[in-house]
Write a structure and sequence with these properties.
Blueprint (H helix, E strand, L loop, with lengths): L1 H13 L28 H14 L2 H5 L4 H9 L2 H12 L6 E6 L5 E7 L2 E7 L3 E3 L2 E10 L9 E10 L2 E7 L2 E2 L2 H38 L27 H4 L2 E2 L2 E8 L9 E8 L9 E4 L5 E4 L15
Antiparallel strand pairs: 1-2, 2-3, 3-5, 4-5, 5-6, 6-7, 7-8, 9-10, 10-11, 11-12, 12-13
Helix pairs in contact: 1-5, 1-6, 2-5
Length: about 300
């Protein structure tokens, strides 16, 4: 669901940056009589390979088909944001195994097979003029034999440094620098909410662990799932593996035990969550005090304390 919202934000943002390209004369259409293998530097081959990279969610391969301006922004995006962008091109959530079939006229169809299903993306002939190319694309679920749910779009590419790079989807300009600020804001908001939820889950897991084993664990790792067999004191299966590793959704989690008093008062604990990359994965640092109070402040990426304001 979270990734689906991100993809929606991409579409809504890009709709505000329509790219109006000139009409292309019919005689500029890329010849469809040539086998795909003879067009290694053509727009058809570039779009084919970009879609295959998006299918496998290969960030390095996909970046080769971005303009220099977009690639610079792409490199700064959080990994999850890069994956969400690639999903936009194949409309599949899980990474897949790409393959290509070429019809008798030389037009390629990229198939993206995932554990949850498959998509087929047929690329039509390219209309080219100078350094621009526009290709019709049909995307469908591989099980759709009637064509009732085919999505049609015109993909734009631009020639840059001797290669063809992604430029637009339909009339929507692929403008990552403009998207970057909005995406960071949305990502930060989601990550900060996730950090608060993570602190709550860890605190509940620690109390559950103490009820079961009459003590607090030495580290968060003991709260995670076991590799094999039933839960134990070393792997109590109380939180997911990310929280047990102390790192989730752009935040790092810290756990400290406070010793019991000489009068017999039980031990307590404190928790903290800080952004792994300040300003990109989060701005607020969080602190859960020994009484269960939550504090939050913009500490420029360092630990919050109980002296910081209480979080709402």
């Amino acid at each position: 669901m979270k990734n689906g919202k991100k993809i929606t934000r991409i579409i809504l943002f890009l709709m505000g940056a329509a790219l109006f390209h000139p009409a292309v004369p019919a005689d500029a259409q890329e010849s469809s009589s040539k086998p795909l293998g003879t067009l290694p530097s053509g727009p058809t081959a570039a779009l084919r390979d970009a879609l295959m990279a998006a299918c496998s969610q290969s960030q390095n391969d996909f970046s080769h088909f971005l303009t220099a301006r977009n690639n610079e922004s792409f490199s700064r995006l959080a990994p999850a944001a890069r994956v969400a962008l690639m999903k936009r091109f194949v409309l599949l959530n899980e990474p897949g195994k790409p393959s290509v079939e070429v019809n008798p006229s030389g037009r390629p169809t990229v198939r993206c097979q995932t554990p949850d299903g498959a998509a087929e993306i047929q690329i039509g002939g390219a209309d080219t003029q100078d350094n621009l190319a526009f290709l019709p694309v049909e995307l469908r679920d591989a099980t759709d034999t009637t064509g009732n749910n085919v999505q049609r779009v015109r993909m734009g590419l631009v020639r840059e440094d001797g290669g063809w790079k992604l430029l637009s989807v339909g009339l929507l300009l692929l403008d990552l620098p403009a998207l970057e600020v909005e995406w960071d804001t949305a990502e930060i908001t989601a990550n900060e909410s996730s950090a608060i939820d993570g602190l709550r889950k860890i605190a509940e897991a620690l109390e559950s662990y103490r009820r079961t084993y009459s003590r607090f664990p030495d580290s968060l790792a003991s709260l995670g799932p076991p590799l094999h067999g039933a839960a134990t004191g070393e792997a109590a299966d109380l939180v997911d593996s990310d929280l047990a590793a102390g790192m989730k959704n752009g935040y790092a989690f810290r756990y400290v035990i406070l010793g019991g008093s000489s009068s017999g008062a039980p031990a307590k604990f404190e928790l903290a969550a800080t952004p792994t990359t300040y300003g990109r994965t989060g701005r607020l640092s969080f602190f859960r005090d020994s009484a269960g109070g939550l504090h939050a402040a913009d500490r420029q990426g360092v630990l919050a304390t109980e002296r910081d304001p209480r979080a709402q």
